[in-house]
Amino acid sequence: MKIISWNVNSVRARINNILNYIKEIKPDILLLQEIKTQDENFPYNEFKNLGYLTYVYGQKSYNGVAIISKIEVKNISKNFIKDSLNQSRIITGEIQVKKKKIELINIYVPNGNPIETAKYDYKKDWLKKFILGIKKKLSKNSNLLIAGDFNIIPEEIDVYDFKRYENDALGKLEIRKKFRELLNLGFKDIFRLKNKEKQEYTFWDYFAGSWQKNYGMRIDHFLLSNSLIENIKSIRINKNPRSKIKPSDHTPVELEII
DNA sequence: ATGGCTGAGCTACTCAGA
Predict the structure, then answer these.
(1) Predicted TM-score (pTM) of this structure
(2) Residue A61 beta carbon within 7 A of nucleic strand B
(3) Within its chain, how far is the Cα of A220 from the centroid?
(4) Is the CB of A36 under 7 A from strand B?
């Protein structure tokens, strides 16, 4: 089963890229972030026509997350945390994979820049609430899959020039510690688990030729609870969509489980 | 290189992204 996470930076601006990607890669489940539309303007039919069910938690102009799936996702929830700014950043649901009931947690973590502002405080508060929510969820179901745009550079290897980001909301130790805190609850960063030394990225800025120069960072992640590690078949960052015309600034991360 | 690009909303320009 292919489960893919992709920050598409507007589902409507990106619809042709996304549909072409689906036809080529044939995901079972596609977890989207930054759909940048309210529910009523979501392109439901385009996904339905390819045989997918759609679960949307939208917001006008900004943020927004969605689950596109070939199989039914049960108990969809849009209130995993109480978001202090009422932004649409988490959608969760359950799937059955053989004997395991797996909770999918699709997230779009706040950016948090600039760091001297309320935006950074919002990110910290959001992550604090999220970690509490994960603890609570773990007491009910040990099979958790957290995927999405974390807006966290976990380690120095995960960005082209760490010095530029060590005092940034994506790379500050205080934020990276939140990521470690999550791992310490009993999760693995699956890309890093399978690629100990590899320097690969999931995001490249639009400007300054960042893509061409490979000035990127790895901020989109799959965290699987330890009980699910035995189910992993493969994980890869698919850079191809970032090379297309009118791309998202993020590229998909593709997990295959059995 | 605290943004030189992109998108939404709107229809001139701001906000947001990372």
Answers:
(1) 0.97
(2) yes
(3) 5
(4) yes
